[in-house]
């Protein structure tokens, strides 16, 4: 097995020089095959309020220039123990949500077919549905850890089924999720009615609110989430608006009273050893950002997801390479 090809060496080429791939990693076409790939989905036609998450992948790649090769939080050098690469962006139709959803599903399934695990950078939350379809196709119904201010289990907006407020209701309806192991984390803010919570509970979701994280603390919350996940295949979806607007101003539907980036990253790191099969970080809208606060936070979320997947890939038995 050849050594993984890592990022551009920042002691030789300043990190602010050259084109931005995620963490200055090689492109997938430069390495042929990857254990873990970072994929952009510049799509935001499913938003209900501020647009602009279509520029999320480019902003997160720019902000990721400062990521370094060793992750002390997880004690792993993700780019050394696994081949990690940047798979570029999915070119999806901004004028037809249904077509875009199909395009994302196909692109994700094609990339995952040789055993590559994906960390997807959005884009609005609509894209979690096709990503879950692709994950469930390979692994069967998956456990879901959903970090978000919002439930995203609403039914329709203006009659539209595929929007950023509805992916997880569609995913439950389509049988993509293991309904014994679904959790929202960081939920807060006004709802349309109490019914929203009743519907959500009926679909199988448990809710750890933003206030719960503050009152119970990161360690207790993480232990409870891990109990619920068990050894099921796990998908992690991170809507960056789970963070307080102080930590993530650059997003489309901000809500006061959110998690700190420290809390979010520590909960993610507490997932080491879980059977993570993929994840996403969505809803970064750079036009509302300041000093890259939001895109830096999102780049660290993606880095921790990549690190968790790299740890998993390093533990996998060697695969046939084709
Ligand atoms: N940011 C996401 N994914 N969803 C927010 C939907 C909230 C709403 O429009 O009422
Ligand atoms: Zn949200
Ligand atoms: Zn969301």
From TrEMBL:
* UniProt keyword annotations, A-Z: Hydrolase, Manganese, Metal-binding
Q: Please tell me where Mn(2+) binds in this chain.
A: 125, 148, 150, 152, 239, 241
Look up and give the organism this protein is from. Microbispora oryzae
Among PROSITE patterns, the record links this protein to: ARGINASE_1 (PS01053), ARGINASE_2 (PS51409)
Q: What Gene Ontology terms describe what this protein does at the molecular function level?
A: agmatinase activity; metal ion binding
Gene name, please? speB
**Necessary cofactors:** Mn(2+)
Q: What's this protein's name?
A: Agmatinase
Biological process GO terms, please? putrescine biosynthetic process from arginine, via agmatine
- Group of enzyme by EC: hydrolase
Where along the sequence do coiled-coil regions lie? none
Note the NCBIfam families from the entry: agmatinase, PRK02190.1
């Amino acid at each position: 097995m050849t050594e993984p090809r890592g990022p551009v060496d920042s002691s030789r080429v300043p990190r602010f020089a050259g084109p931005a791939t995620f963490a200055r990693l090689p492109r997938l076409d430069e390495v042929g095959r990857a254990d873990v790939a970072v994929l952009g989905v510049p799509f935001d036609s499913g938003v209900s309020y501020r647009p602009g998450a279509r520029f999320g992948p480019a902003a997160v790649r720019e902000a990721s220039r400062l990521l370094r090769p060793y992750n002390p939080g997880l004690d792993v050098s993700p780019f050394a123990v696994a081949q990690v690469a940047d798979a570029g962006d999915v070119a999806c139709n901004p004028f037809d949500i249904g077509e875009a959803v199909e395009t994302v599903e196909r692109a994700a399934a094609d990339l995952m077919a040789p055993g590559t695990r994906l960390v997807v950078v959005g884009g609005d939350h609509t894209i979690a549905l096709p990503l879950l379809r692709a994950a469930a196709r390979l692994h069967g119904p998956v456990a879901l850890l959903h970090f978000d201010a919002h439930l995203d289990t609403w039914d329709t907006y203006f009659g539209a089924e595929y929007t950023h407020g509805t992916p997880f209701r569609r995913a439950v309806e389509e049988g993509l999720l293991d309904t014994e192991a679904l959790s929202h984390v960081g939920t807060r803010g006004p709802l349309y009615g109490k019914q929203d919570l009743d519907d959500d509970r009926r679909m199988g979701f448990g809710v750890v609110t933003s206030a719960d994280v503050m009152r119970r603390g990161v360690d207790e919350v993480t232990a409870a989430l891990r109990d619920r996940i068990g050894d099921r295949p796990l998908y992690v979806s991170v809507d960056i608006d789970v963070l307080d607007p102080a930590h993530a101003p650059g997003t489309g539907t901000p809500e006061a009273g959110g998690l700190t980036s420290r809390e979010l990253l520590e909960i993610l790191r507490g997932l080491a050893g879980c059977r993570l099969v993929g994840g996403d970080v969505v809803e970064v809208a750079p036009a509302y950002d300041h000093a890259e606060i939001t895109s830096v936070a999102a780049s660290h979320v993606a880095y921790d997801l990549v690190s968790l997947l790299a740890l998993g890939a390093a533990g996998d038995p060697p695969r046939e390479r084709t």
